[in-house]
Amino acid sequence: xxxxxxxxxxxxxxxxxxxxxxxxxxxxxxxxxxxxxxxxxxxxxxxxxxxxxxxxxxxxxxxxxxxxxxxxxxxxxxxxxxxxxxxxxxxxxxxxxxxxxxxxxxx
Length: 107
Hints:
Layout: H1 2-15, H2 45-57, H3 61-82, H4 93-99
């Protein structure tokens, strides 16, 4: 039995799947990536991590909208400086987060 658990955990680790501890807040997880973040490909891994920390720390729809507007303005400027195309995702990440109960939650 112990060997099966070890094999299962190894298989999960190799597949990139994580097993969250029971005390983890699964509601705070949200997938951010190239499909829903403006300028994702122009961001460094540190910037992506900071973006994720900031977004998951937001509490209200207003905070989210303000942060997204500021982020998109920075990414649009970066794209102009690099001569790259700037595309705003059609996905409304703030609306998706609210639908999952991650914004405007009762305290």
